[in-house]
Write a structure and sequence with these properties.
By secondary structure, the chain is an alpha/beta fold. It contains twelve helices and twelve strands. It binds glyoxylic acid. The site of glyoxylic acid has 7 residues, from loops.
Length: about 325
């Protein structure tokens, strides 16, 4: 590491979480009222910044990177890295780190929360109480879906998908999953996508956002889902075609949706999804527990410090090879 490299931190983090970074580096913080990689104090220091601790809110593309001529490490406080142009980083010799593993349980907990909230019609039930409509106990009042004995279809079966499977099995659900690698798993049955959509009472998405998965859950996908099935998304909003989802819910084909991520994000307050009683939307809080966010900060800092010292990152994002860049006409 050069003597105390300068690191820019693009959002506000508790001082105690930043301690290992502050010990080893000079830090330029964002303006608290204007966080982000383009925050004025960060832009001012940009020519001297060697490391960036960013979040999924920061678009790290070629034009951003051009402002940071000495940048060597981008470390994102997220498992997802769809906000980072990896080819542009590779072309500039910048390594990229992310934070897988440490947010698995928190995100799986939220997927279950959304699944249960939709299955048991929580928004309608709590609204009826708040609005003074809690009347007589009725034998057929607010009937929901019981998870025990139902089929959960997991689209993507990495660490988070498997953690959801473990939880759902404890609720008595049968697990179907699709994943790219053709390996079986004792937690469930690997099937093709058509089998999954045709049989799942709940479909939960656990794939990263990429060119391949953008808009993947479109009208045709939703039409293949069982009538009355629920969709849960804790992955990335743009994996789902939002208009197609609205149509499928309006048509009554889907029973409901639990969304921690949406496209766009944030969802405007007048968005049709927010008028639907069978839709639960949370504001991208999958990893939002104190323990998890503290661990994410620690891992992001470990990635940064390793990269600045020229050591392998504990969790590096694989970058496209130089030959691929040349072939694709990438920069550099
Ligand atoms: C959250 O969405 C993350 O990618 O960490």
């Amino acid at each position: 590491m050069t003597a105390r490299p300068l690191v820019a931190v693009t959002d506000v983090l508790p001082r105690a979480w930043l301690e290992p970074l502050v010990q080893a580096c000079d830090v330029v913080a964002c303006d608290e009222d204007a966080p982000g990689v383009l925050s004025p104090p960060i832009l001012e220091a940009a020519p001297r910044v060697e490391g960036l601790l960013c979040t999924l809110e920061d678009r790290i593309d070629a034009s951003t990177l051009d402002r940071f001529p000495r940048l060597r490490v981008v470390s994102t406080l997220s498992v997802g890295f769809d906000h980072i142009d990896l080819a542009a980083c590779a072309a500039r010799g910048i390594v990229v780190g992310h934070t897988p593993g440490v947010l698995t349980d928190a995100t799986a907990d939220l997927a279950m929360t959304l699944m249960l909230a939709c299955a048991r019609r929580l928004p309608e039930a709590t609204a009826s109480v708040r609005e003074g409509r809690w009347g007589r106990w009725r034998p057929t009042g607010l009937l929901g879906l019981e998870l025990a004995g139902k089929v959960l279809g997991l689209v993507g079966f990495g660490q988070i998908g498997r953690a959801v499977a473990r939880r759902a099995r404890a609720f008595g659900m049968e697990i179907l999953f699709v994943r790219r690698t053709p390996t079986d798993d004792p937690l469930g049955r690997r099937v093709d996508l058509d089998t999954l959509t045709a049989n799942a009472d709940v479909v939960s998405l656990h794939v990263p956002l990429s060119d391949e998965t953008r808009g993947w859950v479109d009208g045709a996908f939703l039409a293949r889902m069982k009538p009355g099935a629920l969709l849960v998304n804790t992955a990335r909003g743009a994996v789902v075609d939002t208009d197609a989802l609205v149509d499928a819910l309006r048509a009554g084909h889907l029973g409901g949706a639990g969304l921690d991520v949406t496209d766009p994000e944030p969802l405007p307050a007048d968005h049709p999804l927010l008028d639907m009683p069978n839709v639960v939307v949370t504001p991208h809080i999958g990893s939002a527990t104190t323990d998890t966010r503290r661990r994410m900060a620690r891992l992001a800092i470990d990635n940064l410090l390793a990269g600045l010292s020229g050591r392998p990152l504990p969790h590096a994002v694989a970058l496209p090879a130089a030959s691929t860049l040349a072939h694709n006409g990438g920069p550099g």
